[in-house]
Write a structure and sequence with these properties.
With 623 residues, the protein is an alpha/beta fold. 54% of the residues lie in helices and 14% in strands. The protein is built from 22 helices and 16 strands. 38% of the residues are buried.
């Protein structure tokens, strides 16, 4: 902002202590000294005079903080000049000048005010100083020669200051430009090259490769579950994790190769010549190995976070860096579909597969708002008396043109994209609503709902369970949430805390696909588990592998030792049922009894069972 016009002119503030010239003639040096003393006494007159000139000129509007800095520099300059005139040390003046031109140069370089405005303010300061000196010379009666010397000292100070301001401005501008150039080509979080610089260097590598007939490879690295860390521990923890990941990856990449961050949880390595002598697969192995040790993320408490990654590899000549990275990106999608923590090498057929997958994902995003999802229900039986005790809600998708899409084709994609959180919430609400409706109709059955690891990554899931029970009025002990063994092991402490909160609502907890993960007895005891669902793979082995009976016996006895219900999945043959009953497995489900049924078929099933059994409703003794 322009400086307000002062109420009093500099001349009106002339100190009354200034005395007229003595009758005895003084040497010019002494007269200059007296002018210096007078100038220091009237420093504020100079500040006001400079402000008056700036206001009259209608200078560039500046921030009040910048204006305050100008005023301070005006005082510093005036006092330093006055002391020099008064016979002080030139070194003091040089130090003061250093501060002034450093300040003005930085202000200009940082674009807080234009350089020409800095120059104009220096000139106005000179004019204000000269006015005070002339006025003081008149009152003091100093000789014209002394005044001339004093004015020359002012001009010399101004000349040096302007030169030095320009030098500082240029140095600061160059530094700022270098910082801007770095920011334009590097990731702000990790300091690694960003996508722009990676593409530029990859193009250079491709040119060298064509010239020398040497290979180039791109490795596209996608870190798994970073979003889960952001959701559970906060974005600061997520940022800290990404910096630690970048450091780990950088530690296994050769200096001749390029490592960069191309997206939120995506990195890339571009390798050539010597690095590829052992093959890009070996580089991928090293990168995956670098992530095996869990990361320690700070927060209110130190948290050890295990991380995995998927890597896509593209090798060979391409027309551009964009094409090489595109093919590596396609390969990383294939790696993610195959399994976590592995790599895949690009093949031409992958592009079509990825395109189809992308189209499926786009369609999947519209499925929930378009009411394309529906639930089917597979009954569960008490194996002692073969009475139905509950149903498991299973998600299905009917696309308007694709028809019914198989669960294996879309549920992994829901997990990968995070859409499972919204869809899982809908499944929970719909299953509770239907379960309450059946119980109200006299079918005393329980409702089991599968829970994704993504859902359990957030405390919001506990609220979702509360809301589903409240909205549907389903009794809490009629709901069982099924969590896979692998999900339990993702973040044991947080998962145990959330499951405990859900258990306190009265909801039952079951471990799904038990025996396929890596949990131990000690791990199981951390969780409030009511039931173990023995994976169907163990049941199918009963037909072909004599050792299968031993494994089954062990799993059932484990449940009994922990006072946990055991439920067998995938029962398809009478022989399997007989063996399970001999082992005293509590419950079971499978095609031998009933396939997944829609709402109408499920109701018919209950009614038919009631007629044949001679009872009015399913027993509901075990949910």
């Amino acid at each position: 902002m322009p400086v307000p016009h002062p109420q009093a002119s500099p001349r009106e503030d002339t100190p009354p202590a200034l005395a007229p010239s003595p009758s005895v003639t003084e040497p010019p040096e002494e007269e200059v000294h007296r002018l210096g003393e007078a100038l220091e006494a009237r420093t504020e007159n100079v500040v006001k005079g400079t402000a008056v000139r700036a206001a009259k000129a209608g200078g560039v509007l500046v921030d009040p903080l910048i204006q305050s800095g100008f005023d301070r520099m005006c005082r510093v300059s005036t006092v330093a000049l006055a002391k020099w005139m008064a016979g002080g040390s030139p070194e003091e003046g040089r130090k003061a000048s250093q501060e002034v031109f450093q300040h003005h140069g930085q202000v200009a370089a940082e674009r807080a005010a234009p350089l020409n405005e800095m120059t104009k303010r220096c000139l106005r300061w000179r004019d204000a100083v000269n006015e005070v000196l002339r006025d003081s010379a008149t009152h003091l009666g100093v000789s014209p020669e002394a005044l001339s010397r004093a004015l020359a000292m002012v001009q010399l100070t101004l000349d040096v200051t302007l030169v030095r301001i320009s030098e500082v401005f240029e140095a600061e501008r160059q530094r700022t430009d270098e910082e801007l150039a770095f920011m334009a080509t590097h990731d702000a979080l990790t300091g690694l090259p960003n996508r722009t610089l990676i593409l530029e260097r990859t193009d250079q590598m491709l040119v060298r490769a064509r010239r020398h007939q040497t290979p180039v490879a791109a490795l596209f690295i996608e870190i798994d579950n970073v979003k889960s860390v952001n959701d559970t521990l906060g974005h600061d923890a997520g940022d800290e994790l990404l910096r630690a990941i970048a450091e780990r990856l950088d530690g296994v990449v050769r200096d001749t190769d390029v490592l960069g961050r191309v997206g939120g949880d995506e990195f890339a390595v571009i390798a050539e010549e010597l690095s590829l002598a052992e093959g890009p697969e070996r580089i991928a192995d090293r990168l995956l190995q670098a992530l095996t040790e869990p990361f320690e993320v700070a927060g209110e408490q130190k948290t050890r976070v295990p991380m995995t990654a998927s890597i896509g590899i593209a090798i060979g000549e391409r027309a551009s860096a964009e094409e090489l990275l595109r093919d590596a990106d396609i390969a990383v999608h294939q790696a993610k579909w195959d399994a976590e923590n592995r790599y895949a090498v690009f093949e031409p057929g992958m592009q079509h597969a990825v395109q189809s997958r992308m189209e499926l994902e786009m369609a999947l995003r519209d499925a929930l708002p378009n009411d394309e999802f529906f639930l089917v229900y597979q009954p569960t039986f008490d194996l002692r008396d073969m009475s139905p005790t509950g149903v498991e809600a299973l998600l299905r998708w009917k696309h308007p043109t694709r028809g019914v899409v198989q669960p294996n084709d879309f549920i992994p994609l829901l997990e990968e994209t995070g859409l499972i959180i919204g869809v899982g919430k809908w499944v929970l609400q719909e299953a509770c609503r239907q379960g309450a409706k059946w119980r109200e109709a006299g079918h005393a059955i329980g409702m089991a709902v599968n829970v994704s690891g993504r859902q359990l990554d957030s405390d919001e899931f506990v609220t979702n369970v509360q809301d589903a029970l409240s909205d549907s009025e389903l009794e809490a002990d009629a709901l069982t949430l099924e969590v896979t063994e692998t999900t339990l092991m993702r973040n044991t402490e947080e998962t145990a805390r959330r499951l405990t909160a859900i258990k306190e609502l009265g909801v039952r907890i079951a471990i799904d696909d038990f025996g396929t993960g890596y949990s131990s007895l000690a791990h199981l005891q951390q969780f409030p588990v009511d039931a173990l669902k023995i994976d169907r793979s163990f049941i199918s082995r009963l037909r072909h592998n004599p050792q299968g009976e031993t494994v089954l016996h062990t799993l059932v006895q484990l449940g009994k030792a922990l006072s946990i219900e055991t439920v067998a999945e995938g029962i398809e043959q009478q022989q399997e049922l007989s063996l399970l009953q001999v082992e005293h497995c509590d419950s079971g489900q499978g095609f031998l009894f009933a396939r997944p049924l829609d709402v109408g078929a499920t109701e018919t099933f209950f009614e038919n069972w009631a007629k044949h059994s001679g009872t009015s409703t399913p027993s509901g003794t075990r949910r």
